[in-house]
Design goal:
Distance between the termini: 8 Å
Number of strands: 26
Oligomer: single chain
Radius of gyration: 32 Å
Strand content: 15-25%
Shape: elongated
Bound molecules: FE2/S2 (inorganic) cluster
Helix content: 25-40%
């Protein structure tokens, strides 16, 4: 340690740290530009010059090591003048008009100009004439704004160990920062970590998507997969653990947010993948399959018998409905110490994962396995137990949560919809799941374009239907089913007809087919009413003996519950809450918002558990840390062809092998490929480790730095 004095303040500082860093840490501002706390210093901009007693010339404080007894002044007439001159030289080649800059109001250079009092118009302006490069994924290179501070070059080379960017000289001797071989970033093996944009003080290298344009926070924009997951599962953290081969730790990360990691590994609708930044580079990460691999290789080391279990509170909660929302809420309420009973109307819990989604997609032993863990936690489960009057339960329980889902198929009001061979999605899938007679013939027409419609069509195939057509209003590119569902169904011989209106179901006593018309346009107007424009003269008919409506579901049995109901018999809850219209009764999941996804149901269950815990006198904090701390190495290094690494595909049985049975056919990513897939991650979260710039208005010494102060400060090593 050394004792130095800066502007009259005596500081005890580590002698291996430069004076600028020590001053900033002690709350003393010294202007700086090329310096960044996460990068090695290069001392090129001279913004940080200071006077040192005994030195003839001012010296950059970012390269100055402290010596015992050193006396430093951050400002003097000479220093101020030199800073103005240095900054004006930099500004001579920088566009003069800040107001058109995307970084306006968020630019370090702009704030530095204000502090130093520099004015670009005093210099003879040079135009760099660099072309704005917008051909890269995720990033824009706008080198006319570059002031050659070199932060991006050091971030790429030294912080990340990648070395894609460097200084280069044009024929006219103008120096630029550019890619080493002058190629686009992907062809230079850029890792697209975003460190260059993060440290750039001017916006010369910046994200294509700026936070202000999206209304998202910086963190949401930086790590979009985590933000997109309804439960905010820490995707980069578990992907990194998988890459390291630590599947126990990866699974513990997922279990911090969701008690059904294996189920999710099979059927999560993976909205995280839609927002994955890797998608801009080539193909999104296979996040769901990585989760599945972790779940299948977990030994329970970090969570089984561990995690939170608060002492018993003496409060009793009844959860009605054993789907993912109800099971999740029950699990966390039990962990908060409440006595939880879950009542399920069907013979088994699991909701759509047990009775809706076919077994070839969601093997039932996995659902049962994860429900058993919830029972092990102490949740009492009563099956074959239908609750009709939840209000009556309040005599026995302190709170009641309704998570009964949407288990009633919707019959569209159209000609022929009451013919005997017209079936409803939920009944059909439930009967198929339970091995019961479905009432299906040989030529089946499914109406609907979501995953449930494909479940119906593909189940019909497996149950022996010979010709299956699936038609929906939506055009192919906006169908709500997952692409893989659509593609696999087509491989299995199912005919998919997007952009169709359902005119009528034909037949007098029995279904003979459906009349359709082509849809020219389908959208919702300002009153959220569906508008369908049909193509004139496009009437056509598809013959069939069975029609399955897969056009939506609604809750069953809510009408007589004595609660306020909303659209399609959903249960109304107070805004921003899960509280229903009767005190002590709560509702969550599909029964509130309609049919969504398993991961949304899990998040709804978590939110309900937090609110009910608070209602019962708890603090509502259901968070738990299960995974070990992760060491993140910011030096990711170069990898040849990184931007071109293809998404690893799961191992699938062929259409012929799978189309006549309900056996599992998707075996996920294999052992040989899993590390490779996890290694494709851009590790966007590393960017959040980079320190944000500290601007002069954060420091108290910037108003009146002068004058001797009788202070003593110790700067930690
Ligand atoms: Fe010290 Fe640039 S910040 S020379």
């Amino acid at each position: 340690m050394a004792i130095i004095t800066i502007d009259g303040v005596r500081l005890t500082v580590p002698d291996d740290r430069n004076v600028l860093e020590s001053a900033l840490q002690a709350g003393i501002y010294i202007p700086h530009l090329c310096y960044h706390p996460d990068l090695p210093e290069n001392g090129s901009c001279r913004m940080c010059i200071v006077e040192v007693d005994g030195e003839e010339q001012p010296v950059p404080s970012c390269t100055l090591r402290p010596k015992d007894g050193m006396v430093i002044r951050t400002r003097s007439e000479r220093v101020d003048k030199l800073r103005v001159l240095a900054l004006e030289l930099l500004l001579a080649a920088h566009p003069e008009d800040c107001s058109t800059c995307p970084k306006y109001g968020n630019c370090e250079l702009q704030t530095l100009m204000q502090y130093v009092g520099a004015n670009a118009s005093r210099m003879r302006v040079r135009i760099k004439g660099a072309r704005m490069e917008e051909g890269n994924p995720l990033l824009i290179h706008d080198m006319n704004r570059c002031v050659l501070c070199g932060r991006c070059v050091r971030a790429c080379k030294k912080l990340r160990g990648v070395g894609v960017l460097d200084y280069t000289k044009r024929e006219d001797l103008e120096t630029f920062v550019a890619t080493v071989h002058g190629k686009l970033l992907k062809d230079e093996d850029c890792r697209f970590c975003g460190a260059c944009a993060e440290v750039c003080p001017t916006g010369s290298i910046r994200d294509k998507l700026q936070a202000a344009e999206t209304g998202k926070t910086k963190e949401e924009l930086t790590v979009p997969c985590r933000a997109a997951c309804p439960a905010h599962t820490d995707v980069p953290r578990y992907v990194r653990f998988v890459k390291q081969g630590d599947y126990d730790a990866a699974l513990a990360v997922i279990r911090e947010k969701a008690p059904f990691p294996k189920v999710l590994g099979y059927i999560c609708n993976h909205v995280c993948e839609l927002d994955c930044k890797r998608r801009e580079v080539n193909e999104a990460m296979s996040i769901r399959n990585i989760k599945r691999y972790a779940a299948e290789h977990d030994t329970g080391k970090y969570w089984r018998g561990k995690g939170k279990q608060l002492p018993d509170t003496g409060k009793k909660v009844c959860v009605v409905g054993g789907g993912p929302a109800g099971l999740t809420a029950a699990y966390y309420l039990r962990k908060q110490g409440h006595d939880v009973t879950l009542k399920e109307a069907l013979p088994k819990c699991g909701g759509m994962a047990q009775y809706g989604i076919p077994a070839y997609r969601m093997p039932r032993n996995i659902v049962d396995e994860e429900i058993a863990i919830i029972e092990e936690q102490g949740v009492k489960i009563e099956t074959n137990c239908r609750v009709e009057k939840p209000v009556d339960l309040l005599k026995e329980f302190d709170a009641v949560l309704l998570t009964i889902g949407s288990h009633e198929g919707v019959r569209l009001p159209m000609e022929g919809s009451d013919l005997p061979e017209v079936l409803l999605n939920i009944d059909f899938l439930q009967n198929a799941s339970m091995g019961k007679e479905t009432g299906m013939g040989k030529r089946v027409i499914v109406l609907g374009g979501g995953n449930v419609a494909f479940d119906c069509a593909r189940s019909a195939k497996r149950l022996g239907a010979e010709e299956i057509h699936l038609a929906c209003l939506e055009a192919r590119d906006v169908m709500t089913a997952d692409d893989e569902e659509i593609e696999q169904a087509q491989e299995e011989g199912i005919f998919v007809h997007p952009a169709q209106t359902f005119e009528r179901i034909t037949g007098t006593d029995h279904v003979t087919g459906v009349d359709f018309m082509n849809v020219k346009a389908f959208y919702f107007d300002e009153n959220r009413r569906a508008v369908i424009e049909k193509e004139e003269g496009s009437e056509h008919h598809i013959e069939g003996d069975t029609v399955i409506f897969a056009t939506g579901q609604r809750p069953q049995g809510t009408v007589d519950m004595g609660l306020e109901l909303g659209r399609a018999n959903s249960i109304v809850v107070k805004e921003g809450s899960n509280a229903a219209s009767v005190d002590g009764i709560f509702a969550a999941g599909d029964v509130v918002y309609g049919t969504k996804s398993v991961i949304m149901a899990i998040e709804a269950g978590r939110e309900a558990a937090q609110e009910i815990d608070r209602y019962l006198g708890g603090d509502g904090d259901i968070s738990e840390v299960l995974a070990p701390e992760q060491v993140k190495d910011p030096c990711i290094g170069k990898e040849e062809g990184f931007g071109y690494l293809a998404r690893k595909q799961p191992e699938l049985k062929t259409a012929e092998e799978r189309e006549d049975n309900f056996n599992q056919f998707d075996f996920g990513i294999c052992d040989a490929d899993i590390c490779g897939e996890a290694s494709r991650c851009l590790q966007c979260d590393l960017r959040l480790m980079i320190h944000p710039p500290r601007l002069w208005n954060e420091f108290s010494n910037t108003e009146a730095a002068e004058g001797n102060k009788e202070e003593e400060v110790t700067v930690n090593a």
